Amino acid sequence: MQLLNRQRTPRRAWNLLAAAALALLLIGCSGSGSSPAASDAAGDCSAASPDGCGTVLVAVTDADGDFVSYSVDVLSVTLERANGSSVETLPAATRIDFAQLTDLADLLSVASVAPGEFVGGTIRLDYAAAEIFVEAGGDIVAAQAVDAAGQALGVAEVEIRLAERDHLIVTRGRAAFLSLDFDLAASHTVDTTQTPALVTAQPYIVAEIVPVEEKELRLRGALVGVDVGAGTYQIDLRPWHRRDGNHGRITVHTNDQTTYEIADAGYTGPAGLTAMAQLPAGTLTIAFGTLDVQAREFTAEIVHAGDSVGGDRIDAVHGNVVARNGDQLTVKGAFAIRRDRAARFHRTVLVQLGPETKVLKTGTPGSVLDKDALSVGQSIVAFGDFAEPTDPSAVPVLDATQSRVRMLVTRLHGTVVGVVPGQLNLRLRAIDRLGIEMFDFTGTGITAAQDADPQDYEILTGSLSLSALEVDRPARAIGFVMPFGAAPPDFEGRTVVDHRNLRAALGIGWGVQGTTAPFLSIGPEGLVFDLGNPSIGERHHLAVGRRIIDLFDLPASPLLAPQTAGRTLYGLTEPGHVELFNDFDPFVAELALRLSGGTPARSLAAYGRYDDAANTLSANKIVVHLLPVE
Description:
The chain is mainly β. The chain has 4 helices and 46 strands.
């Protein structure tokens, strides 16, 4: 399973490099029970004797990258014991759109398993009914997934392998934690010159026993019961947007800061849990929060319940507003959740507003705004009723005139144009997952002359520190778009991330045949690329945020050095196999041995933080894709 490399433009190269990884996380928390369905799925732990079992929770996530939508069916997640036996942790096949999970992890199942040591396993993905969309030419286009031979993908079985000291240990009455990194972007090539676009895939898995630290966890499921005194409630898990089923039972902890949205009412702290106690069993809920690995507890920061969860008694659509015409929003990258059918991605959905439409803002319970709060760029979830089009090819329309819209945290990616106290100006490259070319800012300003300008986008930053920002350097702003027709400023920034704290991704490829001499030097201090190697293809870029730097434009080859603090993981992949290392020294020793023995390197992907003054990428993750020796 190797990283494929084709000729591509720098923008397409960015799309491939910028994604960190599609990850599947296996995590655990004490106080989490498991349903008979999940126990039976595990296959080796009796539902009648759960006290002798340990708990494994399975979640899925993705990272911002090449795909606007990537829906496939996850058939199974099987763990392999040290003695060679296996345990199935997924009670039923589940369809997931991984591209919708760029900023969070979604809990997939809760399984009880007998204690023991797990060394790896397999994940089976079914592409028969896959729906994949990519960005091309300022629009969203359909894509078809094929294997290296150009044949349509069917069921793909991907190996999971754990580093030696990171074996998953499950003990009685305790929960384990395992992260599976399915590097979707780095193991795909996208050819948008064809119709449909062609996605060539050879996926691989990198596994480790830690969570994705920068992401919150989402738990969706049917309410079982509420314990107001204990500050908890229980759900039977229904992952992603499943309409039925039971993937295990889990306890959700809350605190005085937990905010709640139940229908159009907002609460904070115990009042919200008291309101949840009035809901009937089976009511759909969604919680967003974090897992305390030491305490083995999931604590919700935000809870939605009842009609604030689409797909039960109300339809919903999630996406970014790319244009507004009167009371009609054009939403792209839209994921539609319907009451009467499976949830699915749509390139475009229209949302109709009206005088009775209520607007809520995430993180500010109790505040109810009007429809004018919704402007171009804003990430939203709109609730209402889908009208059935007479023409199946027509753009779907969600009627929200008698319902509500929730404003979600929106992420801007761009380059600093200017900084003054209380304001940051960015040249926008993207908003959330969509390239800036998709957005029409007409009508956003007080006058037409004051419409938001994506080349000089004005962000109100209040008392946020801007001292680390530098002109012409990449940055990210997180917050909410200002009301329609009220700009400037264009955006209310809640968080600003400077270039030194943006995740960097480096990618380089050496063509179809690869090379056995990719580096000028290789050793414990790091790797230095030989940029004079004639095998280097079109892929030779360093992405910092959404800014692309051609390696040939640097004064010298960057030093790819190991991160000195925190967890690290380094891997060598070949078709059908992956070998992992926790430490850099044995990784580079094995890499040097393989290269000297005639094994060609096809490509390399690395992730970490880039110091441009030192021209050094300090990487916490590196994967080198090798070709088999013929």
